[in-house]
Amino acid sequence: MGEVDRPALVGDVAGLRSIVARWRNEGARIALVPTMGALHAGHVSLIECARAEADRIVVSIFVNPTQFSPSEDFSKYPRTFEADLAKLRDAAADLCFAPDVAGMYGDGFATTVLVEGVAKADLEDHF
C-alpha cells in the first residue's frame, strides 16, 4: 500500500482481519485509534501518538447506536466521513475501518453490558 493509497478503506470485519493478518505476518506493530468520526485535532493527536508506537495505524469510524441513551438523538450525531478521510490521509493513517451497524451487530446479536455498583459511580447524574 503506497502513500497515495492511504488510508485504505474497509467496511467489514473479514476485510479488516485479512489486512491486519498480512501486517502481522510482516512483523508490523499495529495500533488502533477508535473513533465515532467527526474527527478533530484530538483524534489527529492520537494518530500521531500511535505512529510513534506502531508501524501501521488503523482508525475506526463507527457511530455506535448502543452508546446513545434514549434521550440522545443518534440521528443528529455529526457524520463527516469525506472530511474525516481527508484528515486520515493527512495524518498518514494506513487503514480506515468503517463498518455499518449490520456489520457490527449482525443477526442474532444478543450481547449487552450493564454497568452497576461502584463502577457506575453515579456517572449518569453528572452528564
Task: Explain this structure.
With 127 residues, the chain is of the alpha/beta class. Helix content is 31%, strand content 14%. It has a four-stranded parallel β-sheet with strand order 1-4-3-2, with helices on both faces. The radius of gyration is 17 Å and the shape is globular.
Total beta strand runs: 4
The number of helical segments is 4
Order of strands across the widest beta sheet? 1-4-3-2
Unreliable sequence segments: none
Structural class: alpha/beta
Question: What is the topology?
Answer:
Elements: E1 8-10, H1 13-25, E2 30-35, H2 41-53, E3 56-61, H3 81-90, E4 95-97, H4 101-104
Parallel strand pairs: 1-4, 2-3, 3-4
Features of the shown structure:
127 residues; alpha/beta; four-stranded parallel β-sheet; 4 helices; 4 strands; globular
Short précis:
The protein is α/β, with parallel strands linked by helices. It has helices at 13-25, 41-53, 81-90, 101-104; strands at residues 8-10, 30-35, 56-61, 95-97.
